[in-house]
């Protein structure tokens, strides 16, 4: 099938809201998702990990310490414990009472109110743990609106075995010697480098395109960099400021 994530000539950059609109609302919360939706994001990015009782939640760090009023490694906390946490007060008093969403809750909201998901498998120690995340995507009937990314090549191999219909993106902080070969080996729809990594060899964007592979660059919040990466021909930009990137797109 043709790669629908490749940007046609002259089309705007695809706007991916990093952990939701996380410059304006607490990351990985329903508030961040709503602000991103209103700001015109094409995709919402999140980070998914399992609780001690195997429920997929949105959480970036290994511990809940930075982004909630609790403490401890999320994989040691039960869903009953996680559901009691305040995930908004640390960001601003106006968000007091925001909770840590389950992946199921997030997907249900996207399905009914609009929006596609860039699901980052942040931590999973086994194929069974990845399967628990994909089971929720299936149960919410969202397999046609979810794109999976990870820094872990094992995670991507497991997703490919479990749900070959899902598009895959590989996150990299340093470019591979041959990104096209890696993309082919893993069956990637997109190769997702940091901005700094991409700047070391911008020509990889064209090489990937020639192989039918898109590029999503992270995490880019300034118009100066949007212009640079637009010039490289990247397809999507992952940003904490989706409304501003949408506005920048329209001004081009
Ligand atoms: O989507 C790219 C980015 O989210 C990867 O890094 O640490 O923010 O999850 P991190
Ligand atoms: Ca992420």
The helix/strand class is alpha/beta
What is the CATH first-level class name of the largest domain?
Answer: Alpha Beta
Instruction: Catalogue the unreliable spans.
Output: none
Strand content: 15-25%
Please give the count of helices.
Answer: 10
Number of strands: 9
> What is the number of domains?
2
Q: Roughly what is the average pLDDT, rounded to an integer?
A: 97
Write out the strand line-up for the largest beta sheet, numbering strands in chain order: 1-2-4-5-6-7-8-9
Bound molecules: SN-glycerol-3-phosphate, calcium ion
- Topology pattern, helix = H, strand = E: EHEEHHEHEHEHEHHEHEH
Shape: globular
**Helix proportion range:** 25-40%
Distance between the termini: 30 Å
Could you give a short account of the major beta sheet?
8 strands, parallel, barrel
- CATH fold name of the largest domain, please? TIM Barrel
CATH H-level homologous superfamily name of the largest domain: Phosphatidylinositol (PI) phosphodiesterase
* CATH architecture descriptor text of the largest domain: Alpha-Beta Barrel
Evaluate the radius of gyration: 17 Å
Provide structural commentary.
Residues 13-249 form the GP-PDE domain. It comes from Streptomyces daghestanicus. With 252 residues, the chain is of the alpha/beta class. The protein has 2 domains: 22-166, Alpha-Beta Barrel (TIM Barrel); 167-252, Alpha-Beta Barrel (TIM Barrel), CATH 3.20.20.190. The protein is built from 10 helices and 9 strands. The protein has an 8-stranded parallel β-barrel, surrounded by 7 helices. SN-glycerol-3-phosphate binds next to strand 2.
